[in-house]
Amino acid sequence: MLHPQPDWNSPRSLADALASCAHAHDASSSTGASERLLDAVGNNHAGTYFPVVLDAVSAMHAVLDQGSPWAQRSVLEVLLDVHSAFQPEAAFEMYQGRRLDDTLRERIAMLAPLVVRIAKATTVASGSAAELQLLLGSSMSGNV
């Protein structure tokens, strides 16, 4: 069951956006897929996300673990944005009795072993993974 999502989403918006990330095969398709996923989890232009982002992060695990480097880059770029630059949509700052941004960061932190593995590789996803690894390191120590 999906968490609350933007009104403009169809029932397939998140699944379709995740599939486009999984099928990214070059710079253009990777960037387009990242933008599509940001639109599916929130208001990309306003820099906000809805609780459905939690479903997205869970689904990103498979792409990070088994996806191509371009697919990995697609989801890593989304993770970077929602972790550092985006905020919860105003109506969802608190969700299920907790701050949504705290819950999201905890979910992203659970991806750390995959992020570290990708950062150590020499692929188009390595730079994004290294950047997220730095964010995770600082958030894990309480500096974010």
Helix content: 55-70%
Strand order of the largest sheet: 1-2-3
Number of strands: 5
Order of helices and strands: HHEEHHEEEHHH
Instruction: Give me the secondary-structure category.
Output: mainly alpha
Strand content: 5-15%
Whole-number mean pLDDT: 94
Cα-atom radius of gyration: 14 Å
With helices defined by DSSP (H or I, 4 residues minimum), what is the helix count? 7
State the end-to-end distance. Answer: 30 Å
Q: Mind describing the biggest β-sheet?
A: 3 strands, mixed
Molecular shape: globular
What's the structural domain tally? 1
- Spans of at least 5 consecutive residues whose pLDDT stays below 50 are 140-144
List its salient traits.
single chain, about 140 residues, mainly alpha, 3-stranded mixed sheet, two-stranded antiparallel sheet, 5 strands, globular, disordered C terminus
Can you lay out the helices and strands and say which pair or pack?
Elements: H1 13-22, H2 27-41, E1 42-43, E2 48-49, H3 53-66, H4 69-85, E3 87-88, E4 94-95, E5 98-99, H5 100-109, H6 112-120, H7 126-140
Parallel strand pairs: 2-3
Antiparallel strand pairs: 1-2, 4-5
Helix pairs in contact: 1-2, 1-3, 1-4, 2-4, 3-4, 3-5, 4-7, 6-7
Description:
The chain has 144 residues and is mostly helical. It has one domain (13-140). Helix content is 62%, strand content 7%. A three-stranded mixed β-sheet has the order 1-2-3. Strands 4-5 form a two-stranded antiparallel sheet. Helix 6 crosses helix 7 (126-140). The longest helix has 17 residues, at 69-85.
